[in-house]
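U., I forgot to send this yesterday:
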Amino acid sequence: MQKVKTSQTSKVIKELKQSKVKWVRLQFCNPFGLLHQFSVPSKRITEEYFKIGYPVDGSSIKGFTEINKSELVLVPDASTFSILPDYFDKNHQDDNSSGHQLQYVSKAARMFVDVHNGFGAGRFSRDPRFIAQKANEVAQKNGFSKSYWSAEMEFFVFDKMNGNNIGPNETKNTENIISTEAPWSAQNPENIIPIKGGYFGASPADKLTDFRDEVADTLEETFGISVIAHHHEVATAGQGEVILGFDELLNTADNVVTAMKTVKEVASKRGMVASFNPKPIPNDNGSAMHINQSLWKTKNKKEVNEFYDPADEYAELSQTALYYVGGILEHAKALCGITNPTANSYNRLVPGYEAPINIAWGKMNRSACVRIPTHHKQMSKRKRIEYRVPDPTANIYLAESALLLAGLDGINKKIQPPDPVDVNIYKLSESEKKKRGVGELPTSLKEATSSLQSDNEFLKPAFDEEFIEMYCEALTNQ
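Result:
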């Protein structure tokens, strides 16, 4: 897999010394997207450390190992090094409160790690980063030099959550949510965001413009992550969106994990609560994680977007892209098990809230699960497909990998998608959908899991069969 250059490790070690960083947070995700981290003194980060890593008990991490095969080694990836803002990893609950001192501030940095089996037995097959790296290699073996990805990250930021907090598997009543934007708890009715009325809202109704500014600035200035834009999303009660810039597959996945943590840290610093729950408010829009993607080849020392064809009158979309779309639509039901992995995910995938429920594609059409953006003509770099089904509970490493493998399966098998649909699919009758070849996405986690269990061969170039069995069992027992 990716080999870290000695120059990278030396640069990290030098920067640790010059910056007087005391602690390094080493981070990784389990198969279900939960971010784990542990801290080591910066003086222990040596050239040897980048080779031998840090030993851990894999059996204590959900979805990793059994207790009788517990020994794993975590090896830092020097290319992901960043010095953290001082407010990260702090308990802000008592900050500035009477009789309490501010939390202890210690300069820290972070790196993502690659997970290895113990006793020199190679990479660990359940490591989501490893799966993403393998998926990227599959694309390269199929003749594509790179794939580019971007995530549109939606979330809520509440002032407070009372009582029984919203969990990933259910939707609670709005009485648990306190938000100065929301009609049910705002003190000033002149400055509220109505239900379904928040899209591109402006202050003073939008109370979180500066919040998103801070998130975006932190991503750009601290982590070097490009942000295309941010704005208030459709729902009330602090729903926002941050659109990340395009990058290669693994980098984009790392960036999404970093961005989600940054949103949570900025919220915590402000005494607020960030939620990536897909559907926290029963009668309002939920949060998605739209994923944009394209495949590229190097020709005559130049990168060429293989999804672009200026001769295509419909959407300047190449035959390669059409086959890629065909593969995604073919496996759309199974993909839901990875892109929408909680019971609450299916509270979002219902009619009436702009979430896709139909297996179809089209340009400009946000009622289809695959949209071909066509804002501009004759701009090859912008040609891409957008998959609108995923939500923020997905493990982004697995989601990107699964989408890539589904698309490559379509290319290899020359799966031609049905004709594009350019009408509001929500208004079509069942007979009209059938005529157009429009299918339906799963309506429950149980249905999605069953689809993944019966349709997963396309994943196996990067997902071990044993991993798929473990993952589906965990979804079943959720």
